[in-house]
C-alpha cells in the first residue's frame, strides 16, 4: 500500500510517502480518507484557520506515539496532538500535510493510589470519568472546566485548563505531578515525580503543561488528588448592572473569604438558557453572581454569610443563601448551558481575558462599551472570582459584516484587558486565536525566550507548528 | 583604578579588568579584597567545593544587576547569585574568577495588595519579614523553610524552598505569580502575571523557580498570599522506633486528613536539643511526631482527633492533643533547633531525599541500616507528612576517615531513596552536592532536555556555571 499526499511543510519534494509509517503501526491506526479525517481537522475555534491533515493517527500505546513522532521528524511532517477537540483557541486545528494524533484509544485510568493521593491516567481519559473513578476512593480531582463531560485530561494538560472551582483550588497545572512525554527528538521520557515534593532539576512538568503540544506529546499523566470535600453552600445575588456585579466580586475578595466558586452570568445568557431549557430561573436582572462555599460545618455557613453580606453591600437587588440544593444545581446548570444556548443564536467568538479582581467591574463596563461601539451582541459569562471573563461575541449566521465587527470587538477587548493589567488568555490557551494577543502582551525579549526554548526542545520544528508562538 | 585578577572561566587571556565594571556602578557596589569577599564565598554546604570570587557585587537596583550581567557576558565571567547564604546544597558557592551577586541591598517589600492578595518584593527580603509585613494586612505567606528567620525570598525562589506547612499548603513555587529577571543575554524582563489565572505562553515562572540561578537572576518577585488562617491544634505522638513513627505517617495519609504540619524528630535530635537548651521536653522514646491541624473550629478538632487515632493505631507509646500552647511551641522550637544543636557535635552532612508517604517507614529503616553499615551517626528530622526526610550525618570534627564514611552513607541514602520511588532532593536543590544524584535520578534524555534549555536561556554560559547540571 502506498499513499502519497501533498505536503505543505518541510519535505522539499512536496510529497511524502506514508507507507513507511503504515508499516510500523497496527492496522487501523491511521486514517487517511478525507471523510474520516475531516472530523479531526479542527477544534471548536471555528474562526481560526485549519486544513485537512495528511492523516489521523489513533495510537494505542506510548511506543506507537513515539513511532509516529520519529517518522514525522524523519520526514519533516508536522504533528498536531488532539484530545476531545473541545479547545476554543485552535490549538488542535490541523495543518496541511500534517498528522493529527488523536488519543481516543489511550483512555485508561491506569492507577489510583489513595495513600499517595495520586492517579496515573492516559491522555484520552475524559475529565468527568477521572473524577468519578477517584470519587470511589473518597478522593477528588478538582480541575473542572465547563467541558468536563467531554474534554480529556490530555487536552486539559495541553491548555492548562481552568474551571469553576479554580478560584479556591487552582488549575490543571497545580495537579500535575509527572508526565510521560514523547519529545521533539522522538524520545519517550518521564519528567516530574510521584513524591509530594521534589526539586531535582528544572520544573519541566510545568513547562510542558500549557505548552499546547509545541514542546512534546504527553502520553501519560500523574495527577495529584485531594480528599473528598464537604458539601457546598450556595449564595445567589441579582444585580441591576454588570458593573454592580463586578463590584460585588471585589467586595468578596476584600472580605477575605475564598469561595469554591464565584461565577457570573448576564441577562443574555439567562434569557438564552431560559428560551432553550425551562430551568425556572428568575431572570429579571442584568447579572447574577453564583457563589459556592465549602468550608466545613459552621465555617462554611460563616463563609456564606460573609459572601451574602458582600453581595448586599455592593447593591444586590436580591441576594440569598440557597436552602434548596436542586435550585442551586439549576443555577449552575444554567451556567454550564450558557455557551451552547448562545450558540443557537449564531456563531460565537469566545473571549478569555483575565484581569485583576479589583478591575472586574471596570472591564465589564469596557466590554459593554465595546459592544455598543461595534454594534455587536456580547453576552458575558465569567469565572468572576478570579477575574477570568468570557465575553461571548455572537453574530447572526451568514452575516459577514457582523463577523468583521465581531473581530474588531474581540481585538478591542484584548487591548482593554491588557490596559487593566490583565492577560489575553486566562484558561483557553493561545492556539491560533490569541497569537496576536500574545505578541501584544509579552515583551519581545520574552517572546524570544519562548522561541529559544521551543527550538531547544523541538529542534526539527515538527511539534504543532504555527501555534502559540512562531 | 584598575583591578586585575586571574579568571578560571571564559576569558582566554586568563586575566580580566574589572575597571570597566567599576566605572558603571555606584562607589561601594563592588567588593574585591579577599577579607570581604571570603564571607560570600559559599553557603552552608561546607562539604561542597568553593573558591574566592573575583568580586562581590551588591547592586541596589535591577538596572545595576543588568549592568553586571551584561559585563559578565561581554567578559565571559561567571555570575553567582546569592541570597542569605543559608542554602544547603552549594548552589551559592562561588567559583574562581566569578562575580557573586548579593541581593542584600535589594530588600524592600515594594507593595502589598489585599484585594488581589499579592505582594511584590525585592529578592533580598527575609522570609519572616515578608510574613510579618503581610500579617499586618490580615494576609499570610505560607512557605516556611526552617531558615525563615534568615533566608531570603530570592533564595527561596532559587531553590523552590519548602518548609513545615508545605504538607498542606505547597512550596515556594506555588506562591510565585511573576518575576522580574535579568536573562542570560542581559535583558531585564518580566514573566508571569498579576492575575489569578493566565496561560499566555509557556510557564517561564515555574521554569525559573528552582533553577538555582542557572537560567536568570531574579530581581523582583510577585507572590500570591492567602487570608490569615485559624489557630492550629497540635498533636504529639511518641514512638519506640523510627519505623513505627513512619507507619503512623502513612496511617495519617490513609485517614484522609491533611495536617498543616507533620514533623518527625528522632532521639538524637531530642537529646542534642535537650543538652543544649533546656526546653523541658520528655525524650524517652526513639522518635516523636508533631502534627498540626488548622481546620476551622470543630473541623480542626475533628482533624486532631483523626490524627490522634492514627498515631495510636500505629502503636504510639504515648499520644495526646496538646492543650498547652506553650508546650506545643516548645516542641516546634525543638524541631527548629535540631540542626544547630546537632552541628555542635561536629560537621553535619545534610540529606534531603523525598519518598512516597507510604515508603517513609521503609526509608527510615534503610537509613538506620546505612548508619550501621558505615559506622556513622545519623540523626533524623523530617517533614514526614510529605515524605521529605533529612537524615543528618554527623562526624567528629577533624576525623577524616569518618568524613569518608559519611560520604558513602550519603551516597547510599540517595540510592535507597531512588529505589523507594523517591527523589534525591525534596527542597534543598541540586547545587553541587546533588549533581551526581541528579544524574542517577534522571534519564540521560531528560538531562539533555535540561542542557538544551540551559543553552537556550544562557547561551554564553555565564549563569552559575557548574551548578545543577553541566
Automatic annotation (TrEMBL), chains A, B:
Kindly provide the name given to this protein in its UniProt entry: Glycolate oxidase
This protein's superkingdom? Bacteria
Q: Which UniProt keywords apply?
A: FAD, Flavoprotein, Oxidoreductase
GO MF entries: FAD binding; oxidoreductase activity
Q: Which organism is it from?
A: Nocardioides exalbidus
Q: Which Gene3D superfamilies match?
A: 3.30.465.10, 3.30.70.2740, Vanillyl-alcohol Oxidase, Chain A, domain 4 (1.10.45.10)
The Swiss-Prot or TrEMBL record lists the needed cofactor(s) as:
FAD
Which residue intervals define the domain FAD-binding PCMH-type in the entry?
49-228
Pfam families listed in its UniProt record:
FAD-oxidase_C, FAD_binding_4
Family, similarity comment: Belongs to the FAD-binding oxidoreductase/transferase type 4 family.
Which residue positions does the secretion signal occupy? none
Read off the InterPro entries from this record: FAD-bd_oxidored_4_C, FAD-bd_PCMH, FAD-bd_PCMH-like_sf, FAD-bd_PCMH_sub2, FAD-linked_Oxase-like_C, FAD-linked_OxidoTrans_Type4, Oxid_FAD_bind_N, Vanillyl_alc_oxidase_C-sub2
